[in-house]
Automatic annotation (TrEMBL):
GO molecular function, one term: transaminase activity
CDD domains listed in its UniProt record: AAT_like
Species for this entry: Ruegeria marisflavi
The protein's required cofactors: pyridoxal 5'-phosphate
Keywords assigned by UniProt, alphabetized: Aminotransferase, Transferase
Residue ranges annotated for the Aminotransferase class I/classII large domain, each copy included: 31-383
Name of this protein: Aminotransferase class I/II-fold pyridoxal phosphate-dependent enzyme
Lineage, opening ranks: Bacteria, Pseudomonadati, Pseudomonadota, Alphaproteobacteria, Rhodobacterales
């Protein structure tokens, strides 16, 4: 039996690679998990009540695009957060988590060719792995652009040659960035949107970490595009309740864009989508409408930033994250450091190379480890101190 070759060169996914690296070694102490960005703070207690109150909706097929209440709550949130007014009927669709949307948006929107050539999909490097797989799935060429300390840990798409930009159909950008915690400024967004206008490509703005930040809310791509008068189909926004509300398992995401963009995305969803169950849509609508729990959640992360800054004060190369809940820590060798800290302390972290592409010596993540600050504050502090003393002591 034959199998397709299109995915034959994919490296093993990050977490199977991590298990292969660590699991045949005994931990050197009480295990502290700092690998997966799975929030551990409490979600609002009333979410369960809303699901129970709407349990009868399990009897019905859920609305494919999201219920009117859910889409309305999402549009209200976008208006509050970004000052951008969207039409629930034309501009937004509920997702079963943003990974689905980030993948299927490429399926729905990336053309078969760009200026008569194979299209290019721009990806930051390091990056969320679904960007690469989406590009490969639509027959496009993923083009990895380093997001390093030299570029402020965001990709410098403007430095690309014209022959690359003329073939570019889609540019993925994550702000706040996973894994580095860097935030795209208004000027950064304006430059990128201007570049997209000049070379006629779409921007897929992955803003899933937008509600976890130190002091100032990160600028959103939609608001900058509106202020610039950019083409209404230029920017496609993705966000979710996973990080904002500690509801990774609820799988409530959103995609927002121009009416023609959403028309194509909805058409694909009609054939292949798996909508969120009705009771969960009802709960998600309530959660999108509530900000009190988001502020409480943000305060918990801000306290963790302070812990990390204290623990790593004086460590050469430490970059305090602007937003999100990851530390991107410089080391001599990410794999060796992850193995060392596991064997000597029981702290489990992710080698940065597993989140990036490139041969040894050319992989922008190989001299980093990613540390997820999702554990309770006291556990996090213990783990960070162990990690610091083991690697930098």
């Amino acid at each position: 039996m034959n199998f397709p070759e299109r995915f034959s060169n994919l490296p093993a996914y990050a977490f199977p690679r991590l298990r292969a690296l660590l699991d045949h070694h005994a931990p050197g102490g009480e295990v502290v998990h700092m690998t997966i960005g799975e929030p551990k703070h409490d979600f609002p207690a009333w979410v369960t009540d809303v699901i129970v109150e709407n349990a009868h909706l399990f009897q019905s097929y859920p609305p494919n695009e999201g219920s009117p209440a859910l889409r309305g709550a999402i549009c209200d949130w976008i208006a509050r957060r970004y000052g951008v007014m969207l039409d629930p009927e034309q501009n937004v669709m509920a997702l079963n988590g943003t990974r689905e949307g980030l993948y299927n948006a490429a399926m729905a929107l990336c053309p078969e060719n760009k200026n008569g050539q194979r299209p290019i999909v721009l990806c930051p490097n390091p990056f969320y792995q679904v960007y690469m797989v989406a590009a490969i799935s639509v027959g496009a060429e993923p083009h990895f652009v380093p997001a390093t300390a030299a570029t402020g840990h965001l990709p410098d798409y403007a430095s690309l040659p014209a022959e690359v930009l003329n073939r570019t159909a889609v540019a993925y950008i994550c702000s706040p960035a996973n894994p580095q915690g860097a935030v795209a400024s208004r000027d950064y967004w304006a430059e990128l949107i201007g570049l997209a206008e000049q070379y006629d490509f779409r921007i897929f703005a992955d803003e899933c970490y937008s509600e976890i930040y130190r002091d100032t809310a990160p600028t959103g791509a939609l608001s900058v595009a509106r202020d610039m008068g950019a083409h209404p189909e230029r920017v496609v926004l993705f966000n979710s309740l996973s990080k904002r509300s500690n509801l990774a398992g609820l799988r409530s995401g959103v995609i927002a864009g121009g009416p023609e963009t959403m028309k194509h995305v909805k058409q694909l969803r009609n054939y292949s989508g798996a909508p969120l169950p009705g009771p969960l849509q009802a709960a998600a609508a309530r959660v999108w409408a509530d900000e009190a729990h988001v502020e409480e959640n943000r305060a918990l992360y801000q306290a963790k930033y302070a812990v990390a800054d204290q623990v790593f004060a004086g460590v050469q190369g430490y970059m305090p994250p602007e937003a999100g809940f990851f530390l991107w820590l410089p080391v001599d060798d990410g794999e060796a450091s992850a193995l060392k800290v596991w064997r000597e302390t029981g702290v489990r972290v992710l080698p940065g190379a597993y989140l990036a592409q490139g041969k040894p010596g050319q992989n922008p993540g190989e001299n980093y480890i990613r540390v997820a600050m999702v554990a309770p504050k006291e556990e996090l502090q213990r783990g960070l101190i162990k990690l610091r003393d083991c690697i930098y002591g």
